[in-house]
Amino acid sequence: MKITPKHIEAHNQVHWAHQVKRLDYLTSEINNAEAILEKLMDFQVAIPSWALGTGGTRFGRYPGGGEPRSLEEKIEDVGLLHALNRSSGAISLHIPWDIPKDGEAIKQLAASQGLRFDAVNSNTFQDQDNQVLSYKFGSLQHVDKAVRRQAVEHNIEVIKQGEALGSEAITVWLSDGSCFPGQLNFRRAFQNTLESLREIYAALPKHWKMFIEYKAYEPNFYSMTVGDWGQSLLYANKLGGQAYTLVDLGHHLPNANIEQIVALLLMEGKLGGFHFNDSKYGDDDLTVGSIRPYQLFLIFNELVDGGALESAIRNSQSAISLMIDASHNVKDPLEDLVQSVEAIQVAYAQALLVDRKALESAQLENDAVRCQEILQSAFRTDVRSLVAEARLRLGGPLEPLGLFREVGVRKELIKERGLKTLATGF
Ligand SMILES: [Mn+2]
Question: What is the 419 CA–ligand 1 centroid distance (Å)?
Fold first, then answer.
């Protein structure tokens, strides 16, 4: 299945008049449309290999048909998505769910779709078939040095796999922790984890980064050994200049002020990247911007204010890493990703609209009313025509979701792959 320039052209013709009208209106209302457009056109967000299949819960999973059956088909799906939005030109692999059999061939396939490889992700939160020692009681924190060794070696293997693909970062997320008070000596667990992370860090190529992702709870419910940004930052600071904290929006306790965390990590030069998703209660992994779009905007407001996205351009070494990490039970995974990428672009464009000079002077005058008005005036501006215009200039469709349905992408994929396919990795 391929989305061709012909598809896009025919689609854009239908939507052209409406786009001109709404863009004209918006550009008459704001004064920095061109500058925002340039930034939107440079903006890319990575797609994880596990988001192309229907997600599940621990109660059930309902595959939607035509799901990718192999790494090659996952790359093809990200290629489709990138053709639809022109802003998801990177894929993030999860090892061992997606071990490339032929690294060079996979690299070429990705390049042919305009994709590069973002951070690789290790997995010591599950036992794999043929694994010698179990991670039931933790991996890098484990009381048994042999288990820690096995987990360290896995991470080093993931770095090697990533190197072969041209990745430049590894994300380490640990489910390590404890379910009951007294089960774990906190300080020993921290020290064991730090020692393990040091061994992995020592295996990093010079130009690589290590992202340490934290999570407040689940699967451990009493303590997590990397439970919040404070613990992640402790590890990152102790490890050195190549180690950073990674913020997953769903990994906080309810009502945490994520934008403040983002601001401070940025200030410390330790914000490595994001996993975007949305949630109502916990780590719900819902579509980005579906529940709390204002929070997403406030996060982007901090990113823009801290200059973090100036370097978030294609293939940039100094860029913070942006990835979607969402997966659920009820939507077509590709449609879900189209919505997520668009929500991120909208929040970014709105953040670029904030009158920073006016905000600063209102802050210095302690004018809380004016501060709120400035932020909300940007947030309430409908910037969808700008996002569409950026896509159009990159050769994309004005309405990616519309095109996806018009062309019957899912129907085609079901025809090619079958109705009862199961994406690898779950
Ligand atoms: Mn994550």
Answer: 29
**36-59 core/surface letters (b: 16 or more CB in 10 A; e: else):** bbebbbbbbbbbbbbbbbbbeeee
| Spatial CA neighbour of 43 closest among 383, 401, 421 | 383
CB under 8 Å to 156, separation ≥6 — which residues?
199, 200, 203
pLDDT over 60 (residue 315): no
* CA atoms within a 13 Å half-sphere pointing along the CA-CB vector of 330: 4
Question: Which residue in the block uniquely carries the two structure tokens 């990616």?
Answer: 400
Q: What is the C-alpha separation between 421 and 426, in angstroms, rounded?
A: 12
Q: Ion ligand 1 — residues with CB under 5 Å?
A: 248, 275, 325
Q: How far is the CA of 74 from the centre of ligand 1 (A)?
A: 19
Distance, CA of 405 to CA of 84 (rounded, Å): 11
Global confidence as pTM: 0.96
Tell me the CA–centroid distance for residue 121 and ligand 1, in Å. Answer: 10
Identify whether the C-beta of residue 286 lies closer than 8 Å to the C-beta of residue 328.
yes
**376 — phi, psi (to 5°)?**
-75, -25
**Residue 213 CA to ligand 1 centre (angstroms):** 7
Query: What's the pLDDT band for 314 if we cut at 50, 70, 90?
Result: very low
